[in-house]
Amino acid sequence: MALAGEAAAQIAILQIQVVEGEGAVYAPGARASRPLTVEVTDETGKPVEGAAVSFHLPDDGPGGTFANGLRTDITFTDARGRATLRTLALNRIPGRFQVRIVASKEQARAGIVSFQYVAEPKGGPGAPAAAAGSSHRGRWIAILAAAGAGAAAGILASRSGSQTPAATIASGTSSVPPPVLTIGAPTITVGKP
Asked: Rounded to 5 degrees, what are φ and ψ at 184?
């Protein structure tokens, strides 16, 4: 009879859900404390205390490491069935990454995936090089646009039989205004899947 009572007390099904931190966006290289909290319940919705919860980060790409320096960390649920990821050191690779979360107690297991994000760097070490590249690209666009305008003026001048407009554009004394180019700021949208 004691065996039947023990079997009835055993947890058959676990449920896990993220209650804090889903879709969080972190600065590159940031150190986040308490970034992610999950809640583990049984099949009736009752919180499960003492369940082992493991958090797994990707081996490459956006992500980081835990306080232990590894990409896997284990904690246990409290009396409310909650487990919190304590510390996360983000790397500097921008983009979305997933944290695989697995809860287990006795023979029951449950898993879930949480999506997190490392933001694009703002004015970081890579930013000046990117800005310089954009600056050179903008110059080439302006040079090509000016060359195209000169070629178009030459074609128009040759059709009308006069060489004056092409000569004045080439010498820079034209009254034709140079083309105006405007390049807007890039837009980045990060959303939940």
From this structure: -80, 170
CA-CA distance, 71 to 87, in Å (whole number)? 11
Nearest to 50 by CA among 100, 112, 98, 108: 108
Question: How far does Cα 190 stand from its chain's mean position?
Answer: 7
Residue 176 DSSP code: S
C-alpha distances out from residue 97 to 51, 94, 112, 185, 189, Å: 25, 9, 14, 25, 15
Query: pTM value?
Result: 0.59
Every domain of the chain and the residues it spans: 2-118, 123-193
Q: Which CATH class, in words, describes the domain spanning 2-118?
A: mainly beta
Token pair 């499960």 is found at: 48
**Predicted confidence (pLDDT) per residue in 79-135, tens digit:** 999 999 888 999 999 999 999 999 999 999 999 999 999 999 876 544 433 333 444
Angstrom distances, CA of residue 57 to CA of 20, 39, 67, 150:
17, 19, 12, 56
The answer to whether 23 and 117 have CB atoms below 8 angstroms apart is: yes
Residue appearing with tokens 């369940």: 51
User: For every residue of 81-145, which 3-state class applies, written as one string?
Assistant: CEEEEEEEEECCCCEEEEEEEEEEECCEEEEEEEEEEECCCCCCCCHHHHHHHHHHHHHHHHHHH
